[in-house]
Amino acid sequence: MLIYIIDMFGTAIFAISGVLLAGRLKMDPFGVTVLASVTAIGGGTIRDMALGATPVFWITDTNYLLVIFVTCILTMLIIRKPKRLPWYVLPVSDAIGLAVFVGIGVEKALSYNADPMVAVIMGVITGCGGGIIRDVLAREVPMVLRSEVYATACIIGGIVHTSVLEFNIQSSTAMLFGVATTLVIRLAAIRWHLSLPTFALNK
């Protein structure tokens, strides 16, 4: 139940990031909803389709859609107010949602007897896939393809998750280790502005 609640929390946070980007691009309410939806459930949808886990999760549990729609409405109303949140609230919340999404993605892939390497990839897709779709629709270079430590945190967290299972530790405990690893790395990247070296070719 706790994981499910945090999963819903992550869905809402990812939806907010979609709404904010849609607002910067001056989209209408339909565009806002589309961008918020693909951000929140896009990665999990790709994961389920790749694993053959159909119908995908938000079809069997429409609470995800409800959370997205309510988040869109509230964000569009509240964002017009002059009161502003501290800068760290959304990045930290995003990090929590990201870490849980990766853990859920890895765990679901393993439940479908996927190879550990495939499970890690499914975890990364679950955590980052929605953001990639969002940025592509907005005609921006996806953040995970730039220098910021984002997808890297997901990969390391997924590796920790699958590696701990090799010691015959319960899946829930292994997932906790993976989620914690992803979260710590992502929070460290936010706090100290950590980034990967870039690859650039001289003209």
TrEMBL record:
Entry similarity comment: Belongs to the UPF0126 family.
Segments crossing the lipid bilayer: 6-23, 30-50, 56-78, 85-106, 118-137, 149-169, 175-194
Tree of life domain: Bacteria
Record's GO cellular component terms: plasma membrane
Pfam families cross-referenced by the UniProt entry: Gly_transporter (PF03458)
Organism from which the protein derives: Aliivibrio finisterrensis
Record lineage: Bacteria, Pseudomonadati, Pseudomonadota, Gammaproteobacteria, Vibrionales
Glycine transporter domain location: 5-78, 92-161
Bilayer disposition of the protein: Multi-pass membrane protein
Primary location: membrane
Location relative to the cell: Cell membrane
Keyword Hydrolase: no
Keywords of the record: Cell membrane, Membrane, Transmembrane, Transmembrane helix
InterPro entries xref list: Gly_transporter (IPR005115)
The name this protein goes by in its record: Trimeric intracellular cation channel family protein
